[in-house]
Amino acid sequence: MLGSTSCSQQQSQELIHLQSDPPVAGELQHHQLLLTCARYISQTNFTAAHRIATILSANSSPSGDSSERLIHSFTKALSLRLHPPSPNNNNIITENDDAILHASYLSLNQVTPFIRFSHLTANQAILEAIDQSHHNNIHILDFDIMHGFQWPPLMQAIADRHPPPTLRITATGTNINHLRITGDRLAKFAHSLGLTFRFFPLLLPHTNNNNDNMNDEAETVNAIINRLSAVLILPNETLAVNCVLYLHRFLVNRDKLCLLLRKIKSMNPKVVTLAENEANHNNSIFISRFNEALNYYTAVFDSLEATLPPNSRERAEVEQVWFGREIADIVAAEGEHRRARHERFLSWEMMMRIAGFQNVRLSPFALTQAKLLLRLHYPSQGYNLEVVNDCFFLGWQNQPLFSVSSWH
C-alpha cells in the first residue's frame, strides 16, 4: 500500500513538472512525452495518460515539421486508444475506406521509393527466374494487385525478347470493380506492346472486415486457400507468385499463415517474391510495440521531410492516411482487432523455410538497379541499401524500413 502511494505521488509530480514546463519544442522531449503517455496507458493510469495526451495535442500539428506531424499522428493514436470507438466499429481500417486507401497508395507510390523499390526488385527476381526456365509462357499470381503499377515495366522487358513470351496474370483483390479496371488498363498496355496477355481476377474475402476473433481470421485464410485451388496452373508455363506488403495481415494466426505458405509451395512456383515492412509491430506487449513503432515512423517521417517540399499535398495524404492509419492500428488496437502486424525479415525467413522454401540470391544487377532508382528519383543521402542473407533492405539513415527477398 505504501509503494502504491509513493508511485501515485511520483506520477503527480511528473504531471506537475510537465504542465509547468514551457511548450514542448524539441523532438527528444516529444518522444519522452509520448513514451510517458504510453507507459501510463500500460499501467492503466488513464487519467495521467489523458493529461499528457492533451499537452501533446497542444504542441503538435499535421502541417508542422516532421517532428510535429509525427507527434500529431501518435497523439491521435493514443487518444483513440484512450477513447476507443464503439464495439460495432472497433477496427481502425474498414471496408468503407477502400477508396481513401487506394488514393493514398497512389501518392505513396509517387512520392516515396518504398513501393517502387519493392516492385523493381521483385520484378528483377521474376525476370531472372524466367531466364532460368525453358518455358515461353509466364504466369504471375499477384496477391493484392492494387492498381497494377508493378507490371508495365516487366511487360516492357519481356516484350523486347524474341520471341516475346505470353503473359498471364491471376490477380487477387477484395473489390471486383477495382480488379476489372486494373485488368483493362494492363490489357491495353500489353496490346500497345504487341504482347499476348490474359488477366484473371480472383476475388478474395476482405481481411479488414468486422472479424472479431482468430477463428474468423482463420476462416478467411481457409477461404483463400480454397480459392487458390481453383487457379489453373498449366504445365508449359513458369509460375511466379508475388507477395508485396501482403502476408503480414495474416500474422494474427501464424499457423494458418504457414498453411497458406505451404499451399503456395504446393503450386510449385519458380519464384516467390516477398516484400514487407522491416519492423516488429506484432509484439503483444504494448509499450514494446509502441517504442518500436515510434522509432520506425520517426525515420519514415524524416525521410519524407528531407525529400518533399513543406506544402506537398501528396506527402500529407501519405502521412495522414497510409502511415497514419498504420500508426493508429499499431497503437490503438489490441488483440485480434489489430491488423498492422509487421515483423522483421528474420521472422519471415523462418516461416518461409518451415513452409519448404529456400532463399534465391538476388543478383548484383538487381542491386545496381535499386541504387540507380534511388539516385535518379530520390537523390537524398539519407536512403541506403543493404544486402543481408540474400535479402535487400531499404532504410533511412540507420533505420531499416523495408525488405525484399525471393524464394523457391
Features:
408 residues; alpha/beta; Rossmann fold; nine-stranded mixed sheet; 14 helices; 9 strands; globular; disordered N terminus
Give a brief outline of the structure.
With 408 residues, the chain is an alpha/beta fold. Among the domains are: 59 residues, no CATH class; 186 residues, Rossmann fold, CATH 3.40.50.150.
Question: Can you walk me through this structure?
Answer:
With 408 residues, this protein is α/β, with parallel strands linked by helices. Among the domains are: 1-59, no CATH class; 112-277 and 339-358, Vaccinia Virus protein VP39 (Rossmann fold), CATH 3.40.50. The protein has helices spanning 2-20, 27-42, 46-58, 66-82, 98-111, 114-131, 151-159, 176-193, 214-228, 254-266, 286-307, 313-332, 345-354, 364-377; strands at 137-143, 166-173, 197-203, 238-244, 271-277, 359-360, 383-388, 391-396, 399-407. β7 (383-388) and β8 (391-396) form a beta hairpin. α6 packs parallel to α7.
Write the topology of this structure:
Elements: H1 2-20, H2 27-42, H3 46-58, H4 66-82, H5 98-111, H6 114-131, E1 137-143, H7 151-159, E2 166-173, H8 176-193, E3 197-203, H9 214-228, E4 238-244, H10 254-266, E5 271-277, H11 286-307, H12 313-332, H13 345-354, E6 359-360, H14 364-377, E7 383-388, E8 391-396, E9 399-407
Helix pairs in contact: 1-3, 2-3, 2-4, 2-11, 3-4, 4-11, 4-12, 5-12, 6-7, 6-14, 7-8, 9-10, 11-12
